[in-house]
Structures are given as structure tokens and as C-alpha cells.
Design a protein that fits this description.
Layout: E1 10-13, H1 19-30, E2 34-39, H2 43-54, E3 60-64, H3 71-84, E4 89-92, H4 109-133, E5 139-145, H5 157-177, E6 183-189, H6 202-210, H7 219-230, E7 241-244
Parallel strand pairs: 1-2, 1-4, 2-3, 4-5, 5-6, 6-7
Helix pairs in contact: 1-2, 1-7, 3-4, 4-5
Length: about 250
């Protein structure tokens, strides 16, 4: 296998300015792909990621795009294709995490609505737009969560449901796009050390104890699984959900 298995490919990583998205963008660039990322507010961080993508000898570009607004999705994909000439790999990474029990009066319903828009409606819109421009060998990989299968704490219902929706869509889209030679898969994780879920504090200790490996994962470990599904060794893998969770679901 070539040291650059994704040479000549163009990838789009949503939410690519930090955390798992940042690690994935850099891994795909290491593997030889040109990489576009999206961001909402952290333009400076996005530009930093792009400069590190370009240091790897490939093209990089950041696009401001709010996934909570599905109408921006088609424009985003058009802009990526205009800039790079094609789109081969879509990584649906952008997501937010909002909690609140179903019976709690103080739960922020507007925040819950935005979570659904980002985590589900936005993913559907970007995937629909990307599927229109992808050719045979296209790859769609979505970042999910083990909370789609197991909800060990109260207040996770809305978030868990958004992630379960993604795994259901993954299976369905694999059927829709299989005849065109496009694969669709999801990678579910548990505790990855990021800004969104830091590996310090009492809640972090609880999460760590729930993983068979007894530790948090690194964003690069999630990125490696995404890169596998996006690459030439995964040609017969579609409709699958891969758990990269340190044994949380064991």
C-alpha cells in the first residue's frame, strides 16, 4: 500500500477546527488527500489547521458554514467542488452535546432544537448535497457516539437519539448509494479527550472507569478509524458502525 493511499482524493471534514475533526483532517492530509474543513466561529483555529494541512504537501481550505442551517449545505458542497474540482470523501464530524432530562422544566428547549439541527438535519443536508457530486469509490463516514446504543446517565435522551438517528441513516444510505459504489459508515466513540469532553475532573473519572481500557481515547485514535473507512482497504465495508470506544460497550 502506498504511503499516501488517498493521493488525488478530496475530503470534506465538517467541524474540522478542533478535537476529532482537527485530528481527522490532519490524518487524511497525511494520507495524501486535499482537505476542506468547516467551522462556525473559530476562524483563527480553522486557519491554523489549514496551514498544518498545507505543511503536509496537500491543499487545504476552511469554509465558514453553520450546520444548524441545512440551507447552507448545498452551497458548502458547491464551494468545495469549485475550489478543489471534486469531492470523494465526506466526514460528518460536526456535532454538539446538550443534556437535560425529559421531565426537567429548566431544560433549554432552544438548545435542544439546535442540537437536533446540527447533529441530524445538518448531517442529512450535507450528505444529500455530497452524494450528488460523488462518483464511484466515494466515501461517507459519520462520527457517532456509543450513547446511541447505551444511555448510562440521565439527561442524555436528546443527544443519544441524534446519534442513533445517524447510525440508522448510515444503514439506509448504504442501501441508497451502494449501487453507485459509494460506501457509508459510522464510527462511534465513548470518551475522547477534547475541548468538549476534557479528561480531567470527577465526571472524567467516572467515564474512564466505564471503558475496559480504563482511559480516555485520543482524537488521533478516532481519526485512524475514520481514515481506514475512507481509504482503499475498506472497499467492501458499508452500512457498518465501528465502535472505537475503549471497550465501553463490551
Amino acid at each position: 500500500m502506498s504511503h499516501h493511499p488517498l493521493a488525488g482524493k478530496v475530503a470534506l471534514v465538517t467541524g474540522g477546527s478542533r478535537g476529532i475533526g482537527e485530528a481527522t483532517a490532519l490524518r487524511l492530509a497525511d494520507d495524501g488527500a486535499d482537505v476542506a474543513i468547516t467551522y462556525v466561529s473559530s476562524g483563527e483555529r480553522a486557519r491554523s489547521v489549514v496551514s498544518r494541512i498545507e505543511q503536509r504537501g496537500v491543499r487545504g481550505r476552511a469554509f465558514a458554514s453553520d450546520q444548524a442551517d441545512p440551507e447552507q449545505a448545498a452551497n458548502l458542497v458547491d464551494e468545495v467542488v469549485a475550489a478543489f474540482g471534486r469531492l470523494d470523501i465526506l466526514v460528518n464530524n460536526a456535532g454538539i452535546f446538550v443534556t437535560g432530562p425529559i421531565d426537567a422544566e429548566e431544560t433549554d428547549q432552544a438548545a435542544m432544537g439546535r442540537q437536533y439541527a446540527v447533529n441530524v438535519s445538518g448531517v442529512v443536508a450535507v450528505t444529500r448535497a455530497a452524494a450528488k457530486v460523488m462518483g464511484e469509490g466515494g466515501r461517507i463516514v459519520s462520527a457517532g457516539s456509543v450513547s446511541a446504543d447505551r444511555t448510562p446517565f440521565p439527561g442524555l435522551g436528546d443527544y443519544s437519539a441524534t446519534k442513533a438517528a445517524i447510525t440508522a441513516y448510515t444503514r439506509a444510505w448504504a442501501r441508497d448509494l451502494g449501487p453507485r459504489g459509494i460506501t457509508v459508515n459510522a464510527v462511534q466513540t465513548s470518551s475522547i479527550a477534547t475541548d468538549m469532553n476534557p479528561d480531567v475532573g470527577p465526571f472524567a473519572d467516572v467515564q474512564r472507569s466505564m471503558n475496559a481500557l480504563g482511559r480516555y481515547g485520543r482524537p488521533e485514535e478516532m481519526a485512524a478509524a475514520i481514515a481506514f473507512l475512507a481509504g482503499p482497504d475498506a472497499t467492501f465495508v458499508t452500512g457498518a458502525t465501528l465502535n472505537v470506544d475503549g471497550g465501553f460497550n463490551a
